[in-house]
Design a protein that fits this description.
Layout (H helix, E strand, L loop, with lengths): L13 E7 L14 H17 L4 H6 L3 E11 L8 E11 L3 E10 L2 E13 L10 H4 L6
Antiparallel strand pairs: 1-3, 2-5, 3-4, 4-5
Length: 142
């Protein structure tokens, strides 16, 4: 039997990327340093947006800044140097000014970590502003 990642619910906005753990991202024990999980989560958000036909640069050039308002990681198993990981990034919910993501990080179909984040949309002066339509309409089944 072939193993596979869990199948998201129909209508779920998500993306999967592969990441190889580099030596510089590990600690003395050869384990992925805990701070790098957050970097990987950002990479997942960037690639998910790219899969929708936009880049963060496009969004920022239009005057929308997406700032991290909250982030959480739950570590379950360590990742090690040279592991090939699969990161699933899922849009959990959007509101008028926020996007909530969920993350699942796998190695050989085993869940290593999961997390969540909230991005808030602000203007260049730091004031909350409505998400652009192409992001506000990207919600998972709620």
């Amino acid at each position: 039997m072939t193993q596979a990642l869990p199948v998201p619910a129909p209508g779920t906005v998500f993306g999967d990327i592969e990441i190889r753990v580099r030596y510089a991202e590990t600690d003395r024990m050869g384990l992925l340093h805990h701070a790098n999980y957050l970097v990987y989560f950002e990479q997942g958000r960037i690639e998910l947006l790219r899969s929708m036909g936009r880049t963060y640069k496009d969004v920022e050039d239009e005057g929308y800044l997406l700032v991290l308002a909250r982030i959480e990681v739950k570590y379950k198993r360590p990742a090690r140097y040279d592991d090939v990981l699969t990161l699933r990034t899922i849009v959990e919910r959007t509101t008028g000014v926020r996007i909530e993501h969920r993350y699942e990080l796998y190695c050989e179909y085993k869940l290593l970590a999961e997390g969540s984040s909230t991005l808030a949309c602000i203007d260049r002066e730091g004031n909350p502003q409505a998400l652009p339509t192409y992001l506000a309409n990207r919600t998972a089944s709620l």
